[in-house]
Amino acid sequence: MNIKSLKAFAAIAATTVTLGMLSGAAVAEKVTITDIAGRTVEVEKNPGKVVLGEGRMVYSIALLDRENPFKRVVGWKDDLINYDPDAYRKYKARFPEVDDIQNLGSPYAAEYSLETVISLDTDVVFLNLGNLLKAQESGIIDKLDKAGIPVVFLDFRQRPTQHTVPSLQILGRIFDERDNADEFVDYYQKNMMAVFSRIEEIKVEDKPIVFIENAAGYNPDKCCTTFGGANLGRLVDLAGGINWGSRKFPGFQGKVNPEVIFTDDPDVIIGTGANWSEAQPGTMAVLFGYEASEDLVAERLLALAGRKGWSELKAVKSGQFHSVYHQFYNSPYHFVALQAFAKWFYPEKFSDLDPKATFVELHEKFLPIDYSGVFWGSLPATQ
């Protein structure tokens, strides 16, 4: 090959490399978002590899990546496996590859392996807003930033009625699934408004006082924690009730002496439950989920209502003693709980509302798994 040919070959090679670099740059398109913590973050659009600070973020991702919500998840915390095993097994039956996801543990723990996150070629890490302070104190945000891995905060727990829509919109932009996000947001708004539109005329003096027992019976020897004016406490207010906890303390949740509950004797009591029998053997909780049965739900509700002192409460005597799937407190599906609450508080006003039909429809329209099991219940009438 002569000098002229060598120069021509070199020019072609250089052009090929340049085009390859440009092509790579085009693939790695960026999107700039403001996350729920108010941080401006630049993220790769349609990332192929993401890490979840909590496994239960899959509840939200499944609404967008409907064909396979695990296709881009390379690492997570094992809370879905431990605290909602019914859902985990339901998804695993459809997507066996879920077992290939790396269990990274808590992002805020000293043993969290940044090296593993980097080795997974992670494009973005999603964390919960409720753990913002922990993330700052642990230094995980700065460490990931130095590694070139952006962190995005979402929120379906702290202020779900305020942050669910923007959180889904953020995910929709990052995942390049804006149409799916918008479709679900429309559905979400419609189902929230099915309750809002009817409670405005209810007078304050006609509203029931409602006590939410968070994780009722999870530890049989301990009671109780409840929600303040956030999360399920906020849902109580939006469903036309008066949340007992909002009157007692500010913030997300707080501990309560049962004697105070017995003294105040609220009109309605709602516990939360899930299948914690594997994580907490011996639990008294109502084991709601995709594998739950009506008989076992009724049995567990009777046991909770039969605890010392509880059977004398008017909520138990009047049949206004209920329980609901705990995971509604951490997912975009909380409008189903809102509808259940409204129907419990005002059965005549919401006689045409069917929360179960709503949840079944949600699965049919938006999720890659079908509906099964039991997700809320009331004390049997024989009590």
Q: What's the CATH architecture name of the largest domain?
A: 3-Layer(aba) Sandwich
Could you name the CATH class of the largest domain?
Alpha Beta
**Beta-strand share of residues:** 5-15%
CATH superfamily of the largest domain: Nitrogenase molybdenum iron protein domain
Signal peptide: 1-28
Keywords: Signal
Domain Fe/B12 periplasmic-binding: 49-353
Organism: Kiloniella antarctica
Describe the fold and architecture:
The protein has 383 residues and is of the alpha/beta class. It has 2 domains: 29-176, Rossmann fold; 200-378, Nitrogenase molybdenum iron protein domain (Rossmann fold, 3-Layer(aba) Sandwich). It contains 15 helices and 14 strands. It has helices spanning 3-27, 58-61, 79-83, 85-94, 114-119, 132-138, 140-146, 160-175, 178-199, 231-238, 258-264, 294-305, 314-317, 334-345, 355-366, and strands at residues 30-34, 40-44, 50-52, 73-76, 102-103, 124-128, 151-154, 209-213, 225-227, 242-243, 253-255, 268-273, 321-325, 376-378. Strands 5-4-3-6-7 form a 5-stranded parallel beta sheet. The chain has a 5-stranded mixed beta sheet with strand order 10-8-12-13-14, sandwiched between helices. α2 links the parallel β3 and β4. α8 runs antiparallel to α9, α10 (231-238) packs across α14 and α14 runs antiparallel to α15 (355-366). The chain is globular and about 60 Å long. The relative contact order is 0.12. Mean pLDDT is 92; it is low at 1-26.
